[in-house]
Amino acid sequence: MSVNPALVGREFPPTEPYLVGREKVREFARAVFATSPVNFDVDAAREAGHADLVAPPTFPVVIQEATLAQLLAEPDGGIDFSRVVHGDQQFAYTRPIVAGDELIARLAVTGVKTLGGNAMVTAESTITDQDGEHVVTAISTLVVRGEA
Amino acid sequence: MRAPGSDLSVGDIIAEDSVPLTRDALVRYAGASGDFNPIHYRDDVAKTVGLPGVIAHGMLTMGLAVQPVVDWLGDPARILDYRVRFTRPVVVDPEIGVVVSVLAKVAVLDEEAGEARIDLTVKVGEETVLGKAQVRVRLD
After folding, report:
1. CB pairs under 8 A between A and B
2. Residue A69's domain spans which residues?
3. How far A81 CA sits from the closest chain B CA (Å)?
4. How many separate domains does chain B show?
5. What pLDDT shows up at residue A82?
6. Which residues of chain B make contact with A47, given a CB cutoff of 8 A?
7. Is ipTM > 0.90 here?
8. Residue B3 within any structural domain of the chain
9. Can you give the pLDDT at residue A148?
10. Which band of pLDDT confidence, cut at 50, 70 and 90, is reported for residue B140?
11. Distance from CA of residue B106 to its chain's centroid?
12. pLDDT digits (tens, 9 = 90+) for A121-130
């Protein structure tokens, strides 16, 4: 089965709220070799004007993950996970994620292209906080490799 | 290296770093991110999908590559947009690991908007592993 071009424009229901914990922020920060005190020290984060510990720039991927799982599980999507390669990734921020945020993400498929034997699926996950305010949009292009 | 507030010019190198990556770093990132794809910890599985061996998560490379810019800015809130293209897998040797080098350079300056675009050159040896790695930042 190949990727269904009718996925373009499809919107998914919001994910379950994700509560960002301080220890998760620290764990993720250590994993990406972050050293900034705003990632680890609550006082340093507050002195810099943030409500709590600040998550590293690529942390939104943790919330985005649940939306990509929705996309891959779409019964008529035709996306074979074992053939998926991450093509590119973008984050467009309104503000950084901080500990204490309760975030939901909504995915929309914005593009399906075929190029050679491969399909490129562009998925945009809009992440908002408990007040409905925009935090960050995470955009992924997945390359689904064709059968050789 | 120049600080964010000082006179910047296009072409200035604002940060440089080398990060040694070993298999335990991949395990730590798998746990932190929730990405447990076995190509990041099993050589046999990596080989069955045509890779030479275990590779680093693309998102780990993306995540570590921006850290020198975060340190230069002093505050991750100054990052407005960050994008990369995953051009080549980072193979992590089980014994000696691999070293990922990052060079961050001013590519575009918009003094009126108080913004800059920082381009990252991310390499393993002589090979570029991230393409079009761009960070748009607020300077003021």
Report:
1. 105
2. 5-21+57-144
3. 10
4. 1
5. 75
6. none
7. yes
8. no
9. 56
10. confident
11. 16
12. 999 999 999 9
pLDDT (0 to 100) of residue B132: 96
pLDDT of residue B6: 64
* Residue B95 covered by a domain: yes
Span B8-22, pLDDT tens digits: 999 999 999 999 999
For A81, the closest chain B residue by CA position comes to B37
The β-bridge partners of A139 are: A90, A124
CATH number assigned to the domain comprising residue B63: 3.10.129.10
Q: Indicate yes or no: CB of A90 within 8 angstroms of CB of B81.
A: yes
Q: Is residue B8 part of a domain?
A: no
- On whether residue A72 sits in a domain, the answer given is yes
For testing the chain A interface, which of B17, B48, B55, B62 should be mutated: the one with the most A CBs within 10 Å? B62
Give the domain CATH number at A15.
3.10.129.10
pLDDT level of residue A83 (50, 70, 90 thresholds): confident
CA dist A146 and B121 (Å) reads 30
CB contact under 8 A, B63 and A58: yes
Lookup result for tokens 């914990």 = A21
Give the whole-angstrom CA distance, residue B60 versus residue B71. Answer: 17
Give pTM, 2 decimals.
0.95
Which of these, A3, A32, A81, lies nearest to B58 by C-alpha position? A32
Query: Is A48 a domain residue?
Result: no
Bridge-based pairing of strands B127-138 and B98-110 is: unpaired
* Of residues A148, A110, A144, A143, the one with CA closest to residue A126: A110
Is residue B44 one of the residues assigned to a domain? no
The closest CB to that of B77, out of A27, A88, A95, belongs to: A95
Question: What are the structure tokens assigned to B61, written together?
Answer: 């490379």
Report pLDDT for B121: 98
Count of residues making up chain A: 148
Q: Which of A28, A36, A89 sits opposite B76 (nearest CB)?
A: A36
Residues of A whose CB is below 8 A from B31 = 27, 31
Across the interface, whether the CB atoms of B33 and A91 are under 8 A apart is answered no
Number of domains in chain A: 1
Task: Give A90-111 pLDDT, tens digit per residue.
Answer: 999 999 999 999 999 999 999 9
B contact test, residue of A32, A38, A72, A120 with most B CBs within 10 A: A32
- What range defines the domain where residue B97 resides? 13-21+57-138
